[in-house]
Structure formats: structure tokens, C-alpha cells
Amino acid sequence: TEKGRQIVEKAYILGGIRSDIGIENGKYCNIPAEKLGAAVFKQLLEKYSIEPEKIDLVIAGNAVGAGGNLTRLMLLESEIGKDIPAVTVDVQCGSGLESIALAAAKIQSGQADVVIAGGFESSSTAPRRSYHPNHPDYEKYGGKDHWYRVAKFVPEYHHEQVMLEGAEHTAVTEKITREEMDAWALLSHKRAVKAREDHVLEDCIVSVTGDLPKDEGIRDRMSERLLKRLPPVLKEGSLITAGNACLTHDGAAFVILCSEKFHQTYQARTGKQAQAFFVQVAESAGDPMKSPLTAITAIERLLAKADICPEQIAAWECNEAFAVIDVLFERHFPKQVKDYNIFGGALAYGHPYGASGGMILLHLLKALQNRNGKYGICSIAAAGGVGTALLVQRMNDAR
């Protein structure tokens, strides 16, 4: 029983994998999202010896693809998913993490035994869109000569740079300096370089192109001097730069969730057990022009909902779309900074929107293993001013 509600099943997380992350128009420039996801999906089933017929459902996030049920198309592209139902989730940056929460709910409620969740994204092949002539905003936003790639997140305002503007607005209103953000950006790259050199994440990263996996966004020579030289990305701004804000990326990440029944048979068959189990999820919402704050408010709601203290959390992962999120975390949870994004964050690895929730959960599981910790939290802020935070408990050697 949890807070007076009967949980029928425990949702176990067997594990997962992700692709190495490509920068837009980089290594995956000609690979559509569904093909990128399919390549990782096939390797996931092989790595964990999961038979396709045992999978009840795949729930995956995608934010800038061509629309439709892209997860179903991904499964058909894999050539092994014809008989597997699929659902696509679009909460923009929060799509992957929300997909995992939905998968856990399916298992907890007894509706499924095995659900694969996460997400996949290709900024490199994202389609251009335009308003239909019947739309009241057709002329307002350029008519037949206007194309857009970024969805509309704020009523009466549709602008390609709205997320950057929101980050700048958050930094200004929260009195966050560029120096604070640049320091976190530098730390992110340094930690990511060290994690790569120590091969910490190696067993959860796979290649899609056949070469050795390598995240394209990590900068070995990132420096304070270089960060200081970068100009603001907004004409009217002074704080957000290409160094303390994410670029755009391609990638895929999935995890396998299962019921107690399946977990027992899986252990008997493979001799392996799950890495963790799902504990709780919480969502928050707020000002769409201050969306970075929702990564923090979602954590606060999660802690209250799960009746757990920050001191009990051994590892934290926040999707680092902007360094403003790092500064906000540091201010709200100063004693927890030592356990936060210990392998670096999205400023180094990248932010392939729909896949990012799966990525940070995989990094969180590694951080818990590294810290021999029990509880871990990952959180993500999404366009439109919504946040999702997820609490997991590690299976082995927990304090």
C-alpha cells in the first residue's frame, strides 16, 4: 500500500541502452528518427535476451518527428516488432520520462508484464511545417513563405527561439548570472570527459552506424576562456549562450520495465535480476516562459508525494537543457550538489528531446551503482512549462 492506494504490482527496471548522441547534421544526419530508434530497439532485445512475443507494449517519446504513431513505425522498421502494440508520447523534452512513468503504471496496475519505454529523436531530419491558409494565424506568422520547426508553446506567441527566451527570462527573474551558468557548463563537460575516460557508461551505449560509440557533443577542450568569448544567442539577451544552453541532437534511449511475475522467470532463465524498481512519479506545471523551474518544482512534489527527504537520495539527474537548471538545483538543494549529475549532463552529452528521459534514467542507474546508493531521482523540464520527476530504488547493495 502506498499513501492509501493498493499497488497490484511492483514495476521493475531490468535495464536499458542508449545510442551515442549525435549533433544535428552530424553522424546521424541522414538517419530518420524511426530508423535510429529501431536500431537501438533491436540491440536492446538482444542485450537483455527479451523475446519480442513477450513484450506487451512499447511506449516511446518523440517531439519533432513527422507525427503519427512514430513508435509503431519504429517497430515496423525494426522488422521484429510487427506484432507489438505501440504508443507515441509527445510532452516535448519530457516525452521519454513520461513514457517511462506510463509504462510503470501499466505494470503496477496489472495491465502488462513487459513494457519497453523511452524515446527517440532526429533533429537532423525534423520536418518543416507551415500554417494552413484556413488557420487564423496564417498571415500573422508569415503566410505561404513561412516554415517553422518549433511547435507553439505559448498562446498568441509562436517563435522559434521561445525556449531560449524562457531560459533567459528565468535567469533574469531568478537573478542568475552568466558566470554561475558558465561554471556549470564547464563542469558538465569535465565530468563527461572523465566518465568517458573511465568507461563508466560504456555498457549502456551502443553504436547505430557500426563505428565505436562516441557522443559528439562532449568537448575535451572546453574552457572558461572559451565560454566567456561566446556571444549571447538572443539579440536582446545577455545571459544565454551556445555554451550554457543545449544544441540540438539525434539519439535514442530505451529501458525495459516488467512485473514481479516476469522478473522471477527472467531471473530463472538468465541468472540476472533487475537493476531497480519504480517508486513514484510527480508532475508540475507553471509559467511557460519559466519552464526550467518545473524541473525543481516536480522534484519538490515528488519528495512530498513519496514522503522522502532529500538526504535519502543518493543520486540526482536533471536534464541539463540549460545551465540555469543547474543553478536552480544548487540553490534549492545545496547539500545535494555533490550527488548531482555526477557524470555530466546534457550540455555535454546532448538533448535529443524525446530520448532524454531515457538517457537520464540510464545515467541515474549508473550513478546509483557508482555511489552504492538506494534511492535516485531524475527530473526534466519541458516546453510549455511542465516538469516530470521520477523516483527509483536500486535493487543491489543499497545502503
Topology at a glance:
Elements: E1 12-19, E2 22-23, H1 33-47, E3 57-61, H2 70-78, E4 86-89, H3 95-108, E5 114-122, H4 162-173, H5 178-197, E6 205-206, H6 224-229, E7 249-258, H7 260-270, E8 276-285, H8 294-306, E9 313-318, H9 323-332, H10 346-349, H11 356-371, E10 375-382, E11 386-394
Keywords:
399 residues, single chain, globular, 11 strands, 11 helices, eleven-stranded mixed beta sheet, alpha/beta
Gap between N and C termini, in Å?
A: 23 Å
Major beta sheet, specifics? 11 strands, mixed
Low-confidence stretches: none
Number of helices: 11
Helix proportion range = 25-40%
Overall average residue pLDDT: 95
* Series of secondary-structure elements, N-terminal to C-terminal: EEHEHEHEHHEHEHEHEHHHEE
The total beta strand count reads 11
Beta fraction: 15-25%
Structural class by sheet pairing and helices: alpha/beta
Gyration radius from CA atoms, angstroms = 20 Å
Using the alpha-carbon principal axes, give the shape: globular
